[in-house]
Amino acid sequence: MVAIIRDAKGRVLLSQRVPGAHMAGAWEFPGGKKEPDETRFDALERELTEELGIAVVAAAPFIEIAHAYPDRNVHLDVWVVTDYAREPLAREGQRLHWATVAELEDSGLLEADRPIVAALRALAEPC
């Protein structure tokens, strides 16, 4: 589960992977793994409460991404959080950073997260 969380200025929240984690130091969109007994929304809600201390009020599916790293394959189920309660806090010792969509390209994002930037950019472009 991956969350696109925006602040009042329209910036997007990024989280830095902690030392000892796979690909430590890289930036990513917040989220985590879905447990087998959870719905997609329940997993998103649980992960964001654990990781950031926020309560998801409303969210919608955005895109799904499959990515192959040399040592593992990942499937990202990306949601846009449209409403949440409480300010995000780094509850797992990670660094947090708010970035504009323009800043995301050079933010050191994980490879798997990079297609999300293109999708966000396309979403912001007029039809």
What does this structure look like?
- This protein has helices at residues 40-52, 101-104, 114-124, and strands spanning 2-5, 12-16, 27-28, 55-68, 73-85, 96-99.
- With 127 residues, the protein is an alpha+beta fold.
Low-confidence stretches: none
Helix content estimate: 10-25%
Structural class by SSE content: alpha+beta
What is the strand content? 25-35%
Number of contiguous helices: 3
Reconstruct the topology from this structure.
Layout (H helix, E strand, L loop, with lengths): L1 E4 L6 E5 L10 E2 L11 H13 L2 E14 L4 E13 L10 E4 L1 H4 L9 H11 L3
Write a concise keyword list for the protein shown above.
6 strands; 22% helix; 3-stranded mixed sheet; globular; alpha+beta
Short overview:
This protein is of the alpha+beta class and 127 residues long.
